[in-house]
Design a protein that fits this description.
By secondary structure, the chain is of the alpha/beta class. It has ten helices and eight strands. Bound molecules: phosphoenolpyruvate. Phosphoenolpyruvate (PEP) binds next to strand 8.
Length: 246
């Protein structure tokens, strides 16, 4: 059975004072029955990891370099994330693909770097509105999934997040049928490539998930949880989503 996962992506939000949101989240969910993850900006990984040493919530990064170290000003490596206490890292988020020109091949190399050090890779894929409207959703998602997921991925070390680009931070979400179609497709592709182990990968939905729409999204087959941006910043909002998943 795949364990459900609620993962929060804080993006470029959060300073020291916001650590109180983590305290509140742990207070609201002392013994969660689903897996929890918060991916704060890199500056908060170490304090968050220290705070959560007695709680099952995992702390993750939002990106890593393909190399372990070297002359890459401003970048962070998987080794550094691991050293700071991270257990996972989001890779290939559409904002990184758009802002930093990350290709599927780059995302796959970053995933290898993360997996080799023992971090869980949360690999993001998803179509733009233009691609959806021109009927290319499954082609795009299939291509990104194949190109971004390395051969060393398996159901235990890698999570796939389906995030339609046009649903991120917009308040718009696909219909439940559209979400089901893509999640079933991703599952089938994973099983084609990884055989029986394809059943073990968790596939999250991401894009404008809130407490008010979470339950109906989580009721869809092959939706194993959510990657949540805006609604993960406040513990009380994120808690509503976690409760819908439990
Ligand atoms: C995200 O950035 O991964 C995301 C899903 O954002 P939001 O929940 O704000 O749409």
């Amino acid at each position: 059975m795949r364990r459900k996962l609620a993962a929060g992506n804080w993006k470029m939000n959060g300073i020291g004072i916001d650590l109180e949101q983590l305290d509140r989240l742990m207070e609201l969910h002392p013994n969660p029955t689903v897996d929890l993850m918060i991916c704060p900006p890199a500056t908060l990984i170490h304090p968050m990891a220290a705070k959560t040493s007695e709680h099952p919530i995992h702390i993750g990064g939002q990106d890593c370099h393909t190399n372990e170290k070297g002359a890459h000003t401003g970048d962070i490596s998987a080794v550094m994330l691991d050293d700071a206490g991270a257990r996972a890292v989001i890779l290939g988020h559409s904002e990184r693909r758009a802002d930093h020109g990350e290709t599927d091949a780059v995302v796959a190399s970053k995933s290898v770097a993360a997996l080799e050090i023992g971090l869980t890779a949360v690999i993001c894929i998803g179509e733009t509105l233009e691609e959806r409207e021109s009927g290319k959703t499954l082609d795009v998602v299939g291509e990104q999934l194949a190109g971004s997921t390395p051969d060393i991925a398996n159901g235990g070390n890698t999570v796939i997040a389906y995030e339609p680009v046009w649903a991120i931070g917009t308040g718009k979400i696909p219909t439940l049928e559209q979400i089901a179609e893509v999640h079933n497709f991703i599952r089938a592709e994973l099983e084609k490539r990884f055989g029986e182990d394809g059943k073990a990968f968790r596939v999250l939905y991401g894009g404008s998930v809130k407490p008010s729409n979470a339950a109906e999204i989580f009721a869809i087959d092959n939706v194993d949880g959510a990657l949540v941006g805006g609604a993960s910043l406040k513990a009380d909002d994120f808690s509503g989503i976690i409760t819908a998943l439990e």
